[in-house]
Fold these 2 entries.
Entry 1:
Amino acid sequence: MTGPGFLKNSGITVFAFLAGLLLFSGTCKNLLMQAEADCARVALDEEEYFIYVPRAYNRAKKPQQFPLLVAVHGSGLYKGKELTGGPMCEGYRRLAEYYSVILVCPTLHGDFPIAENGSGKIVERIIRQVTRKYSVHPKRISLYGFSAGAEFVERLAFMEPEMFDAVVCVDGGSDFKRTVPKNRKLPRFLFMIGAEDLPRRVRQSAEMAGIIRKAGGLAGFELIPNLGHEESEQIKRRAFGFGTEDIAQTRWANRGSAHKEEEEAVSPGNLRGKLEFVL
């Protein structure tokens, strides 16, 4: 068994093993690249949005409808340039893959937080285009916004409340006058904000949750310890979990008068550690 023939056969075996290993490695690399596909930019006249479609959508063996999450960026600059939906889409696509959610991130400009000024209609148009092209569950369309984007999605949800299932507002809060629509079905709301953010933002986010509940809606408020005006992985996962789950799976804390302080002028110290929404 140690003659030249054995060495020759061993060489062939080793070669075949290495070739198979390289093929397997290449397959794994391709699968990894598929799992980390880039977001696609879509132009809509003078506007644009970025979209990520999870692999589960194309793998579905039978027709099914997928949740849609529209995520809106804040205002300001990113690497010296005006913020667009691109960086937000790239930052959220892995969670969209994990939760099997179609993710859409529009690029908005100027005074976009005031949805009534026209930016709201732009996003509604984007949603209509996406729902025409993809199989989207009409009752599982949710909104997510950070900072100025949080103010925007809140106002958009008040403009067209029946269009959305859930709304997540992170680090929002503003002095804009907002009116909760009456005699209309409101989506579920979740307000999240860092405990180290501006006291004004903390107070206004808590007050807004209280106002929505007082109007008969479902609204949670969560103060994140040791976090300023920023997003964290915890917040991102929380947003996707809240925005994509069925309302029947949501356990709401029934605390009655525990919401009283949110309907008054609330101080961050009184709110620290409070959790009015429970998953």
Note: The longest strand covers residues 136-146.
Entry 2:
Amino acid sequence: MRRRRVLPLWLLCAALAAPLSGAHPDAEVFERMYREVLGFDGGYTRLDPVAGLLHSADYRRKVPWPEHPAGSFELKTNNLGFREDLPTSVKKAPGVLRVLVAGDSHTDGLVDNAEAFPNLAEADLAGRYGAGAFEVINGGVTHTGFRDYLGFYKRHRHLQPDVFVVAVYAGNDFIEAARYLEYREGLEHSQEYVPRLTEAVGVHEGAVWQGFNQIAYFKSAPKMKGRVLRLAQTTLREIRGLCRKDGAELLVIVLATKLEMEWDSDSERLGRLKALLGFSDDDLKLNAALRRDLSRALRQDGINVLDAADAPLPAKGPPLFWNMDYHLSVVGHRWLAGLLAKELSQRHDRPDAVDTHEP
């Protein structure tokens, strides 16, 4: 998989494309935001005027990955473009609790399908309640953010999920929201930090795109933090409203970064990047502050939030994130799957517990 590169607007400026016909309000913005992605991933993703990016159906590619126990993993999508080994039926099976999961590349997964947290959660729940009690569908798509998650639900609400899970990654989903606002409104700001960021990519590309880039962005454009948080909150409120209309429950998972959760696992390299970018200890807290602010705002709105940073970490062992590029590792997916399975088992035991809080 091409590593997720959340590039600032000023590095991506290009001639504006002709608007997409068809009228979805985000269609033109999506087309301009994602045009550079589509030519670099071997057909793994495709542009969608409603959902932004979706996976191509029935795609398969082996990706060498030395950190993986098998030395590689497979990118594989099913008939509907989900990261599932088996086909997904549009019609929900009787008696099943269907869970649809949206998220970015951490949900999409740099692991085999069976190792990704949605499928591991399904396997865990099958062990508790029997095979077929839950269907947990991995709809994660690399490069996506808040507006895509809204479009993803709109595109797939005909699947009638009982629970819609949005997995927010605190290391770059907020800069994705800033990019969306910049493309939509034609905003620009200082480019002073770009040379240092480019140098940092040479030290460790994954650390930059999975956390440091977002810190540098909001350090240079602090006024965007409030706007981005408002966009995230209002977008998730809109998703909650659609879920209510459909009789579904919304669960938001917020995932912290490797920088926040396990700095010591790669401290020498992270220290070099911190010095190179001129970050203070307070600067390094920026992503965590955005994560906490979003979680707090959503809870005040009565939205069910699982902030994974608040959960107990597994006993000392292999890192939760690959050191190669700072995406969730096999161990990290297993840990997150346990948290999701616990949340869904509570939903199973309270089948009428649909979120009904009015904003």
Note: The first strand starts at residue 45 and ends at 48.
